[in-house]
Amino acid sequence: MPKIYEYKCDICGFDLPEGWGGCMYVEDDNGKRITCDHPCEGEAIGNVLGKNPSKELLKKRVGFNSDCICLDCLHQFKADLSSKGLKDKDKRECPKCKSEKVKTISELVNKPCPKCHKGTIKEIETGIWT
Questions:
Q1: 125 vs 4, 16, 41, 103, 110, CA distance in Å?
Q2: SS3 18
Q3: Model pLDDT for residues 67-119, shown as the tens digit of each residue
């Protein structure tokens, strides 16, 4: 079971979504992403893809939406951006201003705050597990 974290600047208090950086999803037949709530991801996937979907179907239609922020306009959104060197499923682009200066929350931990540029984004344990 994953720990829940707060993500915030140690100077200005600017905060990002609480959690573990995003959520798993499954795409329905129309390409709509349906969030798979933890710890019932398998049930959500089965409801959409049926019992015992092939590995190929799982690879094609299951992913992880990372919590993201645009460093230019500070718009926060979700996108399937790989943090393991794999090809990003979504374009690394802000849906609001079209900037390509987009980072996931995990990429911002211990980096300069995108708002005040003085503090550092910290990952703070909440003491909550899911």
A1: 7, 14, 23, 21, 14
A2: strand
A3: 999 999 999 999 998 655 556 689 999 999 999 999 999 999 999 999 999 99
Element (H, E) at 117: none
Peptide bond into 39 cis (omega under 30): yes
Question: Cα–Cα–Cα angle for 71, 105, 103, nearest 5°?
Answer: 35
Compute the C-alpha angle 85/108/120, nearest 5°. Answer: 155
Distance between CA atoms of 17 and 3, rounded to whole angstroms? 14
Are 62 and 47 a contacting pair, CB within 8 Å? no
Distance in angstroms (rounded) separating the CA atoms of residues 130 and 123: 17
Query: Could you give the 3-state DSSP secondary structure of residue 66?
Result: strand
Domain boundaries, the chain: 3-129
